[in-house]
Amino acid sequence: MSMSKVASTGPLRKSSRGIRVSGLAIAASAGLLLSGCAQSTATPSTDSADNDAAGACDFSPSYPNGPIEMAVPWAAGGGTDSVSRFVGSQLADRLGTQVNVVNRDGGGGVIGHTAIANAKPDGSTIGMATVEITMMHWQGLTDLSYKDITPISQVNSDPSGITVAADAPWQTIEELLEAARSNPGEIVGSGTAIGGIWDLARAGMLIEAGMDPNAIRWVPSAGAAPALQELAAGGIDVSFSSLAENDTMIQAGEVRPLAIMGEKRDPKYPDVPTLKESGVDFSMGTWRGIAGPAGMDEDVVAELNCYLDDIVHSDAYADFMETSRFGVDWRDTNDFTEFVAGEDSAKGEIMQAAGLAG
What we know:
The protein has helices at 48-57, 79-95, 110-118, 136-139, 173-182, 197-208, 224-233, 243-251, 298-312, 315-324, 333-353; strands spanning 37-40, 68-72, 99-103, 125-130, 149-159, 161-165, 187-190, 216-218, 238-241, 255-260, 285-293, 328-331. The chain has 358 residues and is α/β, with parallel strands linked by helices. It folds into 2 domains: 37-158 and 285-353, D-Maltodextrin-Binding Protein, domain 2 (3-Layer(aba) Sandwich); 161-278, Periplasmic binding protein-like II (D-Maltodextrin-Binding Protein, domain 2). The strands form 2 sheets. The protein has a 7-stranded mixed beta sheet. Helix 6 (197-208) crosses helix 11 (333-353). The radius of gyration is 20 Å and the shape is globular.
């Protein structure tokens, strides 16, 4: 069973400013939990490039007519929060209004994505949707799915990395896989909760390699950072998460990446091979993109997509993402909508094969 190419980690995509899009369907009916917020505040920019973008992107002259909330389904301080705050501040500059970044974490992403889906479809609430929107309903955590949101623009993706301690006995990904094959269940991995994106990366890799998905045993963690601490301390053997999340300890020489699950090598880690190079044709990663509730006005979606296009293709965004070690991956509204639908189908297939579906 081939499950390769289930997540894009490709290069920056072609700009598509000014396109118009069609809205999506059916809004969700789920509860909304509130948490604290932080805001990005800006006045209209006087920069000539921003002014040019403003003129080209003004598809909905009445939008915005007040502050915008950007819901983040994950806690403050993480990668999604960091990217959201940068994008929020850039949007505030271009729209000339406050963009309040609100962390609505909990429920494995359910609370934040529900906040996006349950908002008024007028663009006053948008959010940073993550790959979990294509996974949560397969796990039985919620009935919410990608059909309950309007994908607007994808801004990032990062492949899963496979990282071991600096003194681990495996020097290559081939050696690690052979050890898992010979001693199923003895090697322990972590990186997220059971059924999370990095758990799915582990399971998919092992299935594609012809092994039981539990040949590397999974221990749940609250996220990549605590899992990495356990790796350095000897509590686990392998971390499955993006190399960006592990970068500080990689640079310090405390951990060592064996491979990434991308379509090609990451130029930030040119010596780290892809899983494909070991003969396991499988890719998996996380992604982030701006979304709103289903049924949004087409002109508001077109305006946001246009501004986001300008942001993602700016030097400021490139510099921020390079410094943060995150990957830039752009999809406009139409491509992002198609991509999310494909992700949902692919994730369901792997989750069912790995016994992770609810």
